[in-house]
Write a structure and sequence with these properties.
Helix 4 runs parallel beside helix 5. This protein has 321 residues and is α/β, with parallel strands linked by helices. The protein starts with a strand and ends in a 7-residue tail after the last helix. The chain has one domain: TIM Barrel (Alpha-Beta Barrel), CATH 3.20.20.150. The chain has an eight-stranded parallel β-barrel, surrounded by four helices. A four-stranded antiparallel beta sheet has the order 5-6-13-12.
Length: 321
């Protein structure tokens, strides 16, 4: 298993810090269609002994999800992204199929251990819904049905999976977060384990893969170790986090304070032979980080890296250098 991370703020100091504490892989947001941007990013990371493992966030797929007349242009942009990543050796694109939002919370500052701040969601406070940038979403959208979303996903995968497979790139689907049946008038289709079984059944290809976000599967009420084993061969990338509650009402936790048996989860990854990037996700905001991006501050990651490395070694796994 390879300890991976996003880095925010994305500074040389934080890159050096990540390298010093044992991170090997970096995950970065979409950089556009020019290959030079990925080459430059790869070279910058390599100067710190790090590698670029995956692209996730800000992908050009909203029109693909909605299935409108602009979707074919976005599919061509995604094909260009695949070509760019293949040319520089970046093997994973993490995407989701949430129409109109990314992951959503209704509170970005709920106290956890020692007064650290975590994000939370309460369906009763949906008027306060916020994205990871902290911006409020409009509360009404044109509705879109689950059947339409599945049709749109099939259209996309039919055109992109053959290209990705030829290039050796995996498209790893992230669950809907929160995994509700519908949100803000739009249905959701990556909301339970059966949906992921259906996803991987659409194309029997190593390029049709899963980002196993533990926190979101916990929001579903799934048995985490059992689900890792159930979806095992399709998991190419892991978001390691935990929550307390249900999909309608939950809060994030430290990696060691939630209800999930995190050691059993790591043993399950070991048992399925997972050797890809695994990164801490949505860490608590610690003292002195008042201006940080909720869920994506640096100090909480330092705790998570060590905790994860310890679990991996205790489970008899290997932490890649």
């Amino acid at each position: 298993m390879r300890i991976a991370s996003v880095i925010t703020p994305f500074t040389d100091e934080n890159l050096k810090l990540a390298s010093q504490v044992g991170v090997t892989d970096i995950v970065f947001r979409y950089l556009g269609t020019e290959v030079c941007a990925y080459v430059e990013m790869k070279e910058r990371l390599e100067s710190f002994g790090l590698r670029l493992a995956a692209i996730e966030g800000y992908l050009p797929i909203e029109n693909i999800i909605l299935g409108n007349k602009k979707r074919d242009d976005e599919i061509e942009e995604m094909k260009q992204l695949i070509a760019n990543l293949a040319s520089v050796g970046i093997p994973i694109i993490c995407y989701n199929f949430m129409a109109g939002t990314d992951w959503v919370r209704t509170d970005l500052a709920v106290p956890e251990r020692g007064g650290a701040l975590v994000t939370a969601f309460n369906i009763d406070d949906v008027n306060k819904a916020m994205s990871l940038e902290g911006s409020s979403h409009q509360l009404e959208y044109d509705p879109i049905s689950a059947d339409r979303l599945w049709d749109n996903l099939q259209y996309f995968l039919d055109r992109i999976i053959p290209v990705a497979e030829k290039a050796g790139i995996a498209l790893a689907m992230h669950p809907d977060d929160p995994p509700l049946d519908s949100f803000l008038g739009r249905d959701r289709i990556m909301k339970n384990v059966d949906d992921f079984e259906r996803l991987v059944g659409t194309h029997a290809s190593p390029s049709n893969a899963i980002c196993f976000c533990q926190g979101t599967f916990a929001e579903m009420g799934a048995d985490i170790p059992a689900t890792i084993r159930r979806l095992g061969k399709h998991i190419r990338y892991v978001h390691f986090r935990d929550i307390e509650g249900t999909r309608e009402r939950f809060r994030e936790t430290f990696h060691d304070t939630g209800p999930t048996d995190m050691y059993a989860a790591i043993r399950a990854y070991r048992d399925i032979g997972f050797n890809g990037p695994i990164r801490p996700d949505h860490v608590p905001q610690l003292v002195g980080e008042d201006d940080g991006e909720p869920g994506y501050t640096m100090l909480g990651r330092l705790f998570a890296y060590g905790y994860m490395k310890g679990l991996i070694e205790a489970a008899g796994g290997l932490v890649a250098d």
